[in-house]
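Escalation from tier 1.

The customer reports that the assembly of two entities below gives different structure tokens on two consecutive runs. Tier 1 could not reproduce it. I'm attaching the input and our single run for tier 2 to review.
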Amino acid sequence: MRQKKSTEVTVGLFVILGLLALFFLAMKVSNLTSFNDEPGYRVTAEFENVGGLKARSPVTLAGVRIGRVESITLDSDTYSANVVLNLYASFSTLPTDTAASIYTAGLLGEQYIGLEAGAEEEFLKDGDVIELTQPALVLEQVIGQFLFSKAGGDE
Amino acid sequence: MDGIQRLGRWAIGTSERLGRGYLFLMAILAGVPSTLMRFSLVIQQLYSVGVLSVFLILISGLFVGMVLGLQGYYTLVDFGAEESLGVMVALSLVRELGPVVSALLFAGRAGSALTAEIGLMKSTEQLSGMEMMAVDPIRRIITPRFLAGFISLPLLAAIFSAVGIIGGYIVGYGLLGVDDGAFWTQMQTKTDLYADIMNGVIKSVVFGFVVTWIALFEGHDAIPTSEGVGRATTRTVVHSAFAILSLDFVLTALMFGEV
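Tier 1 run:
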């Protein structure tokens, strides 16, 4: 039994439309496109407090994304957090005295690591450690310090 | 005494229907391999179940997305967070509204038609006629419709979500002046391919299975009179709505409960 050609064509179009919609959701709406990270090199940074930083958070230099956080582990000797950064291989000219800080995008946004390039002649290599770090800003601590200094000033 | 008897009759009747529904589903699934051999039957049903629902889904998706854009904007603008409009529209459509609303529309548009069609075939004794000719009505009539519904609904839900997001974009960017770039980039950073989009697709697959099953069973189990077919059609829509909404809760709890 053959059916009308037009039926088959419209069903074909329907299936294509559905798959296109799925493709649109995957490519345009989801974070699939930001997954294709080029292979990079790893450097470690030790933070006193990482706040809300998570694996896969962005690492930026001058606001440009140059890598992502690969893992966050606790160093049980120093009680600080070891953050492994995966930086794109094309940004291989970071000076060894580069500083890393944890910032928040907007007032309530997600946290990310911002790098500031130093002035050394030598560059960071795979497995190196970033020495200069600044911990995440914890809002409660800041407010607490502010209130404390305020109370101290009154007396 | 009379009340107790009625309660007992209701309990026995419900259990019997549940059992018949299960056996009916097993018969449908047993017919799947032989139906796949004659896929042209499924294509015919894909046309009447799926293609004819596309227009309804397109229009509803567009308007649901546009309303989400408006309502979301008026709420978010109070917090100065109207840039997050894209995230809100995309997540609510992909996770919830896409699968659920398209399943409800599908139950009303295609499910009721399936029940009425099967019910009328039964009351005009076409199904028994087929059995007389040694043609299995389950394999010839029911299973192709089941497969068509099962394939159509996930595609329709994806179309619904995609069109809805475009509708939200039209309202957000075109009407309310939300920043174009922030709309898409925030959406892309916050929407996960597996956790959000794939779970939405899984939901619509489950809904497609359940809605088509209910529709076909009600038609096949209808009392073969015009009144019986009418009642069966109503039951399809009501039971589908119950099933969709309660399953949605269970699926959501399973998928997004542990974060």
